[in-house]
């Protein structure tokens, strides 16, 4: 699957945010979207997700593409546990469903944290629940907006390795301010400036 971004332009009240942005992305690859604060990374994700309309240009992709996002905010249900935050995305409450959610989350978080309300978790733990949920939901494309905020270096490397393991045939786009992330992820750098 190929996703083509062509001549994308976006302004807010006269402030040019995206200026003739062009690139092509392919399934089976990880892309790291980099650029200074305010360069339009989140805005690009919003256009891709259909939340925001570009002024001109287009993103060509199959119409039935399933895109899943980790937003800059965790957007978790705080009173529910990490396991429940995953299982609530699909119908049913079977033990099998809970077992599968636990298996995903055990790759990212300590066992004891999986059944506590999300409100009692640290910021970095919440971030990992949000990442786990994005990996759990079936998708063709995963966009992650600064997913590694609050993670120490070692934890970040473990999380990256699990992301790569789970997304081998998907298209993954990750925005980051850390230039080392592209090489740690073995990803392709896309610069917005
Ligand atoms: N709804 C909006 N109305 C007006 N201006 C906006 C709106 N959304 C974003 N902007 C502006 O667009 C520019 C790009 O914002 P965006 O959040 O896309 O940048 P970013 O690269 O993701 O930044 P960061 O790295 O800080 O998250 C900023 O100057 C921001 O203030």
Automatic annotation (TrEMBL):
<feature type="domain" description="ABC transporter">
    <location>
        <begin position="3"/>
        <end position="192"/>
    </location>
</feature>
<dbReference type="InterPro" id="IPR017871">
    <property type="entry name" value="ABC_transporter-like_CS"/>
</dbReference>
<dbReference type="InterPro" id="IPR003593">
    <property type="entry name" value="AAA+_ATPase"/>
</dbReference>
<dbReference type="GO" id="GO:0016887">
    <property type="term" value="F:ATP hydrolysis activity"/>
</dbReference>
<dbReference type="InterPro" id="IPR003439">
    <property type="entry name" value="ABC_transporter-like_ATP-bd"/>
</dbReference>
<dbReference type="GO" id="GO:0005524">
    <property type="term" value="F:ATP binding"/>
</dbReference>
<comment type="similarity">
    <text>Belongs to the ABC transporter superfamily.</text>
</comment>
<dbReference type="InterPro" id="IPR050763">
    <property type="entry name" value="ABC_transporter_ATP-binding"/>
</dbReference>
<keyword id="KW-0067">ATP-binding</keyword>
<keyword id="KW-0547">Nucleotide-binding</keyword>
<keyword id="KW-0813">Transport</keyword>
<dbReference type="Pfam" id="PF00005">
    <property type="entry name" value="ABC_tran"/>
</dbReference>
<protein>
    <submittedName>
        <fullName>ABC transporter</fullName>
    </submittedName>
</protein>
<dbReference type="InterPro" id="IPR027417">
    <property type="entry name" value="P-loop_NTPase"/>
</dbReference>
